[in-house]
Model the fold of this input.
Amino acid sequence: MSVTIEKSRRTDHMAYMEGMEQIDPTVRNEVVAARESYDAASFGPGDVRRALSASSRGPREFAALLSPAAAPFLEEMARLAREEKRRWFGDNVYLFTPLYISNYCENYCVYCGFNCRNKIRRAKLNMEEIERELQAIARTGLEEILILTGESRKASGVEYIGDACALASKYFKTVGIEVYPMNSDEYAYLHKRGVDYVTVFQETYDSDRYEKLHLAGHKRVFPYRLEAQERALMGGMRGVAFAALLGLSDFRRDAYAAGIHAYLLQRKYPRAEISFSCPRLRPIVGGEGVQPADNVGERELLQILCAYRLFMPFAGITVSTRERAGFRDNVMDIVATKISAGVSTGIGGHTGEEKGDDQFEIADNRSVDEVTAAARERGLSAVTNDYIYL
Ligand code: SF4
Done:
């Protein structure tokens, strides 16, 4: 990896930038401390057995289920996870699709194709183009949409995102966003414009590694990003989603930290709907490539997904098209509650008028109908929504 911003010129990644809201750091401090003290190698088969037979599972059981000692118990974990999923969500699997409306980005994340140093085709959709994309997606029958942008306040300001979301709520019953972290009053504004939930990937909870991967831009500020979900809940959002990008650092520790982060916020904000995503590093456009720090295979990924389900059985789990179709079909039966379908990660990809490059290569190109058919084959009901606002 060639680093083109010398160390001496990089800003302090722990210092808030101007305009960034600071909130009570208790949850952040606890999450970082939990990650640091997590020693996956300290768990043995006895700990895993105890975690599996427990009637309710706290952080200690979760830690055991994420450890290498739990790998030989994967089948049992999957069986229990499937039971929990049925108990809380029945046979349902929710479908949604992401809509990328801008790929301008002011950050320099070395592992991402959208980064500001990467020479890709940049584009931003105007409201007419967004409406055409929304109409094209709505025709597939979907009722939930996730609006995404690269992280640029200049190119895609809060009002632009708000206008896009207000438009989206004309066509969709549930609207989520995956955009740059904001202050709580901005989240409150977007909530008024129809946004239900906010997803923020922390990427890695390892602050030292984070500093080396995020070389420029507001995203470099580790605490501001880690506190985004809490600010979103303070702004009145119904739900928040958590993720570590598996492979950037020690994946077990990062998966553990994301789980503890969600757990602590659930206790502090009991009304919050919690979800997890489990993205793995993907090849990027024009990238030199960041090699995964750790090898996260499908078995490890399944173990993490099952550990989340057994730790917080009522939480949503989303599996994206970064994963191949066969894997997604299996996990929607076992553990996932929500999967994307009919995905294009390019800008303007749904109307066939793509103006900007994709963020990453997807591994499952299936249409909404094809994913629905795959769900039915497994005895699942593909559900487009369970929220109806009056
Ligand atoms: S990961 Fe997000 S913030 Fe970082 S370069 Fe990519 S789009 Fe920008």
